Amino acid sequence: MALVLCSLYAIGCSASAQESNAMARGLSLHYVLRVDTTDLSGYDIELHINNAPHTLRLAMATHHEYDDKYWKHLEHFSIKTSTGKGSFVKEDSALWRISIPEHDAVISYRLHLPNQTSPQRACHRPFLTATGGLVGDLHSFMYMVGQTDIPCYVTFQMPGDWKIATGLKATSDPKVYSASSAKVLMDCPVLIGKLHTWGFTVSGIPHRVAYWAAQNALAFDTSLLVDNIKKISEQEVSLFGAIPYDNYTFLLQDNAFGALEHLNSVTLGTPSAMLASHMNYFCEEIAHEFSHTWNLMRIKPAEYTELNYGPQERASGLWFSEGLAMFYADLLVRRAGLETEDTTRTAHLEHIIKRYYADTGNTFIPTAKVSLTSNVLPGELGDYNASVHVQGELIGAMLDLIIRNATNNKRSIDDVMKAMFKRFGGDKGFYTKDIEGVVKEVCDCDVHPFFQAYVYNGHAINFNEYLKLAGMQMQLSWTVAKDDKGNVAPDFRIYKWTSPADSSSRIFITTPNGCWGRAGLHTTDILVAFNGKPVERSSSFGSLLRDVHIGDTVFIMVKRDDGTKTIPVVITSYMEPVVKIKPLDKVNEQQQSVFDSWIKGLN
Ligand SMILES: [Zn+2]
Hints:
This protein is of the alpha+beta class. Helix content is 31%, strand content 27%. It has 19 helices and 30 strands. Strands 4-7-2-1-12-15-14 form a seven-stranded mixed beta sheet. It is globular, with a radius of gyration of 26 Å. The chain binds zinc ion. The site of zinc ion (ZN) has 4 residues, from α8.
């Protein structure tokens, strides 16, 4: 892929001259996205280019966190010009070089939707049904390399009774939307179909909620859903102090899981059955994703470029983007007066610290390193697992206590978020040293040793040193892990993943000290057979281990560079952490004051 980067760089160097020439010529880009409900295997896209140079490059962009490589699913790529003389060469996986003798052309292709391999659909990936679907963004559209500042238009051709919900800008024609740049177009998913839609305003800015319901969807309290989202939105706006968009759309989907943030929209998998039975289940997820509108989409890691078609870019400050979004997922739902997963802030902290210790990797792999390996394939942390969400949330929580203590409760981590948004809410990206600088300014105290220990080096967080600032202490003990029914649980901490390079099924373990690691298995081993039977691609370890119990021996055949071997694994139990947070025996006035404001979640 080095060649890809070189060519990107070369094009980037000449981009400004090229762009000004293009602007002078009146380059225009108009996309047409056509859905035909008699064939739901995909949808067709045309790109009408006018006043273009004779040679241009089109690329499919790489997402910073979820690189789904939809360039694999493009078919029937063709070029039409008035003389019929256009041609193209595929220069790399996601890059097409187009030659046209005139200045106008129509590029056409079809996006063939890949088969769904899991029971539920990831909500950020395109889909189509007879009643609607998700289209658009970088999964669908190509951008013109070196011409990313050109505004573009999209016409949606689809059944007449379908609605459109998107962050793209509406025009006077209800089927035509615009984007101010390629970056905006690549960032805007489009929910289409027989949608239910609602709206509310926050500080005068319109927010829309759209829901695509599958057939036989269960009824749920729609006004409660919209009210919950509004309350969360108000808290987010209050936290960051300003609204960086002129409209926002929540794209909610039945039969889907997960969520993905965008500049002025978010996709959320919200199955109607869950909304009917556990509406509050989604509150923290909505709060997390919506806070990314500021913290990640605008306060963004410096390593992230605007548009890139090469490998995914790694960000050393991802712990801040994800960890603080986790921290505020709990806190803002509390501030909104909605039900949280953990009853109190203390219970929530116990829960997250337990998760921290449950994966040993969290306690000794620097969070800056975990950030860099966060969105890549398993194996870069050896046989350990670690999470930027967990590490980052706890670093944020401890910094909050440090700031509250140092400023007599006049300031908190909220002030860090506001200052980060003011300083890095524009084009300038941040590095971890910038966060350290902002925290230092907010608390007027020396946090360098803290960042050195826990962010740059992999010291285990000394929770009691910071909890005592609020008159609290933590006790850690270990117990045999139990299942939901209270029975001793077998160590099933082994997972399977598919290598995109060779489609092989590979192993992922979370610690070398569990029964799998002790037996000699390693993350990235190719899984060949389980108990003598070849392992099918679709089967999970959950299904392979269904009838396996503590004391059983299973035989795992793996393939490595030095050959194939069968490894016997004796299934054992395993230990899990127990975390209890209690008040200190003696608490002074300062500690009590920090605790009182912290426990209420005050800013
Ligand atoms: Zn996130």
